[in-house]
Design a protein that fits this description.
Layout (H helix, E strand, L loop, with lengths): L1 E4 L16 E7 L6 H20 L8 E7 L4 H14 L4 E2 L5 H13 L4 E3 L15 E3 L10 H8 L9 E7 L2 H16 L3 E8 L7 H10 L3 E5 L3 H12 L6 E4 L8 H4 L8 E4 L8 H14 L5 H20 L6 H12 L2 E3 L2 E3 L12 E6 L2 E6 L16
Parallel strand pairs: 2-3, 2-4, 5-6, 7-8, 7-9, 9-10
Antiparallel strand pairs: 1-3, 11-14, 12-13, 14-15
Helix pairs in contact: 1-9, 1-10, 2-3, 4-5, 6-7, 10-11
C-alpha cells in the first residue's frame, strides 16, 4: 500500500513553491499488530506537513510525504526503506513506529548515510546498535519512562509503601522496556516481584495471567502494554475482583477509547507520557489548534511524536540549508547531534547514541480525566494513592 501525500498548502501554492517538492519517505504499520499507533504517527506527520507547507515549505519548496505500509512486518519495513531511498531516491526519511521496525529500518538508513529521526523506537536495544545517524524524537527512552513514579513510590513512608508487585508485558521491546525499567528500580528499592509474565503480541485471552496476578494479591500492577492488550488484561482482572493499590500501564490509558473500554473504571490508573496537549511550549498551541481543525479531535502522544520528528528534521534542514541524499545528510546528522531543538514535547537534545536526555511525565486518571501528577513542578493534580476500586 502506498499513500502519497502532496503539498497541502493553499491552492495557489506556486508563490511559495520554488522548484521540485522535497520528498520525504516513510514506512509505517498502517495494518497489522501496530496499525493503531502507526496511524496515529501518520496523522502527526500529516499535520506537520500541512503546517510547514502553509508556511512556505522547507527551503522555499513544498514538502511531499511518500508513505508505504509495512504491515507491521520487519522484513517489509526493510524492503520499504530500500525502495524509498535506493529506488525512489527520496530526499529525506522519517522513521516508522515500534522498536521492532525501527531497528531494521535504521540499519538501511545508515547504510545509505541518511539522517534517521524516529518517533517510536524507545527500547534500550535501539541505542545499543552503534547507530550514528539515529535520533529518537521524544523526551525519554522506554526504560526511563517511569523514573518519576519509581521515585515517588520509594519515597513513601515505610508503612505506606507497597511491598509486592506483579508485571505483565507484551513480548515487545518497548512494552517490556517500560515495565522492566520500573521493575528494576522498585526491586532495588525493596519492592518484591511476585508475578512476572510475558505474552505474545497477538494475545487476546488474559484469563490465565489475570488469575496469577489476582492470586498473588500484589500491591502494584504494572502492564507493559500497547492498547488492546492492556484493556483485555484489566477487564480480566476486574472480573476476578482483583484490586491493586497502584496500577500503571505503558500506553493504553492515554488512548481516547480507554475509559469506555474498561467500563469507565479508570480512577487512579497511571501511565507515563512524553506529551501534554496543555504543555506551554511555543509550537504546541499551534499544533493542537491546527491538528484539531484538520482531524476533528485533539492530538495524543503518538501524533505528537510524529509531529516532533518533523520539527527536528525541519530545524536541521533550515539550519544546514540542504535536503537531499549525499553529503547533505552527514551535515544534517552533525547538526542534530550538536544542537537542541524546541518541539511540542519540549526542548530535545541527544547523546552520542541518539538517546534523548529527558524524562517522561506521569499521568493519572482523576475525576474522569487523565492529568499530569508527576513531577511536582508540572503537575495538574495531586498523586492519588492508593488507587480506588475499579
Amino acid at each position: 500500500m502506498i499513500v502519497t501525500l502532496g503539498a497541502c498548502g493553499s491552492s495557489d501554492g506556486g508563490d511559495t513553491q520554488e522548484g521540485d517538492p522535497i520528498v520525504i519517505g516513510v514506512s509505517l504499520p498502517l495494518t497489522g499488530d501496530f496499525s493503531e499507533p502507526g496511524k496515529g504517527v501518520q496523522q502527526g506527520y500529516e499535520a506537520w506537513q500541512k503546517i510547514i507547507n502553509e508556511k512556505g515549505g522547507l527551503l522555499g519548496r513544498q514538502v511531499e510525504l511518500k508513505i508505504l505500509d509495512d504491515q507491521s512486518n520487519a522484513d517489509r519495513v526493510v524492503a520499504d526503506y530500500e525502495q524509498l531511498i535506493g529506488k525512489d531516491e527520496v530526499d529525506l526519511v522519517f522513521g516508522p513506529f515500534s522498536t521492532r521496525l525501527v531497528v531494521p529500518s535504521a540499519r538501511v538508513a545508515e547504510e545509505y548515510g541518511m539522517l534517521f529521526v524516529e518517533p517510536a523506537g524507545a527500547a534500550k536495544e535501539v541505542f545499543e546498535q552503534g547507530f550514528k545517524n539515529l535520533f529518537y524524537a521524544a523526551p525519554a527512552v522506554a526504560n526511563d519512562h517511569y523514573n518519576h513514579l519509581a521515585e515517588k513510590i520509594l519515597a513513601m513512608p515505610a508503612d505506606q509503601r507497597p511491598k509486592t508487585a506483579a508485571y505483565a508485558a507484551m513480548d515487545d521491546p518497548f512494552a517490556q522496556g517500560t515495565a522492566y525499567g520500573l521493575k528494576e528500580k522498585l526491586e532495588a528499592g525493596g519492592v518484591k516481584t511476585v508475578v512476572n509474565e510475558v505474552y505474545p503480541p497477538n494475545t487476546t485471552d488474559f484469563s490465565g495471567i489475570a488469575a496469577k496476578i489476582a492470586d498473588s494479591k500484589a500491591d502494584v500492577l504494572v502492564g507493559g502494554s500497547q492498547y488492546q492488550d492492556g484493556v483485555n488484561l484489566i477487564v480480566a482482572l476486574q472480573q476476578l475482583g482483583y484490586q491493586p493499590k497502584l496500577a500503571a500501564f505503558s500506553t493504553a490509558p492515554t488512548n481516547p477509547e480507554f475509559a469506555s473500554a474498561i467500563g469507565n473504571k479508570t480512577e487512579g490508573v497511571l501511565s507515563p507520557t512524553g506529551y501534554s496537549q496543555d504543555a506551554p511550549y511555543e509550537s504546541n498551541k499551534e499544533f493542537v489548534e491546527k491538528y484539531t481543525a484538520q482531524f476533528g479531535k485533539a492530538p495524543e502522544e503518538d501524533q505528537a511524536n510524529g509531529y516532533t520528528t518533523g520539527q527536528v528534521v525541519a530545524a536541521a534542514v533550515t539550519a544546514v540549508g540542504c535536503a537531499e541524499q549525499g553529503e547533505c545528510q552527514q551535515k544534517l546528522v552533525d547538526w542534530v547531534r550538536a544542537n537542541t531543538v524546541d518541539t511540542v514535547v519540549g526542548p530535545l537534545s541527544w547523546d552520542e547514541t541518539g538517546k534523548p536526555k529527558g524524562a517522561h511525565m506521569i499521568q493519572q486518571w482523576i475525576g474522569g480525566d487523565i492529568k499530569i501528577v508527576l513531577p511536582e513542578d508540572v503537575k495538574e493534580a495531586e498523586f492519588l494513592y492508593p488507587k480506588p476500586a475499579w
